[in-house]
Amino acid sequence: MHENAIQTLRQLPPDYKTELLPAIREEFIRSEKTIVVLDDDPTGTQTCYDVTVLTSWRVALIAEELRKKPSILYILTNSRSLPEQEAVDLTLEVGSNVNKAAQESGRQIVVISRSDSTLRGHFPAEVDAIARTMNMQEAVIVFIPAFIEGGRFTLNDVHYIVENETLVPVSDTPFAHDVVFGYKQANLKQWVEEKTAGRIRAEDVNSISIEDIRIGGPQAVSEQLTTCAAGTVCVVNAASYRDLEVVVMGLLLAEKQGKTFLYRSSATFVPIRAGLESSRMFLPRKEDTRLAQGALVIVGSHVPKTTRQLFWLLENGHYRTVEVNVGELLHSEELANRAELIGKQTDGWLANGEDVVLYTSRRLEAGPDPKSSLMINALVSDFLVSILKGLTVRPKFIVAKGGITSSDLASKGLATEKAMVLGPVIPGVPVWQMDAASKFPGILYVVFPGNVGDETALLEVCRKLGG
């Protein structure tokens, strides 16, 4: 029996009474540091605004951005799309390049490993790799999966998703059955033990409780953090923005006493760590999408939430559609010809001012093991990329649905090395503006996570951008 979300949240102690964001911002500016976010898929930019995201990790490019002294710099690794060893190798490479760029630019950095609020991703392998390459083996790993915008809260060390005003433990959701990153535990201490195969026992995982945060405040949080042994994991409970403000202030106090921290977090934590408001909304202007051409929506995510959103969009809008049959792709030897035909058809519709939806078949095609399932995902993503690369007509805007899909379409399909995050168009759904060197310079590009929003959300985004 799942608990009612509203009733449960009302029974918690009230939020800590003092607003802390201005003090955090002041302290952060004084530190003269940049938060470098290694993002395992592009949806992690969903709470930020006026922030640069890089899809390349060349040392010169990172150093160039660090010399501008930004508060936050995102580097999109898309490592969630890779098998574990490849993800580790990539993280070691990126981490090494970040270190070199920091030295060249003279800028001090804070590192955040941003990952999924539904607990999918390469943990602990990716965090361990960051610790190795950044020489942070002694750092306390602070684990903060709470994603306030998406209704993902951690209470009594259990991580929940709010569905229909009900608190559902993540272990009872489809995300726990992911063919690559599945898990059984919603209690985060037990989840850490599960994911480390017992190397870290649940009883050795520390936690900051809601009571520590809301009653004890930053000082109590700091005291808890200072007792954490080097290299251990500390779980953070949170159910509001203010909770995370208190946690950040506690972290800053603990750092002053010599503690070092490596963060594994969801998107909500990132701007708050810099003392910035989370999720300031992006309001599209008519001139942003004034082209007469149609818009393009590409749906690669296959989670049930995405499927409901896709069907609602098609039932309530006017779209030309192409279904990409994944089963047929797996047995086809003419992928290039197929992609070219779809591209030409799409070009024609876009040129006529018609909106187009390209979507993969809704039946999940999984391999016998995680690696083969990731290979299927990569094949499908590459096919969608080849369609986008072949387009000659610039769409009014592009919506990419799903983490792997949106990453590959941006970096490979649009040949984008750098973009500006303008902010979320609806909670949890960021809009990027591609740089001048991309295939379609300056185009608005929506990174739509597979697991965000109600069934009307995809239609709502398209209508907001379409004017």
TrEMBL record:
A single GO molecular function term of this UniProt record: ATP binding
SUPFAM superfamilies, alphabetized: YgbK-like
Keywords in alphabetical order: ATP-binding, Carbohydrate metabolism, Kinase, Nucleotide-binding, Transferase
Top-level taxon of the source organism: Bacteria
Four-carbon acid sugar kinase N-terminal domain boundaries: 35-270
Pfam families on file: NBD_C (PF17042), SBD_N (PF07005)
Keyword Hydrolase attributed: no
Domain Four-carbon acid sugar kinase nucleotide binding: 296-458
Family according to the record: Belongs to the four-carbon acid sugar kinase family.
UniProt protein name: Hydroxyacid dehydrogenase
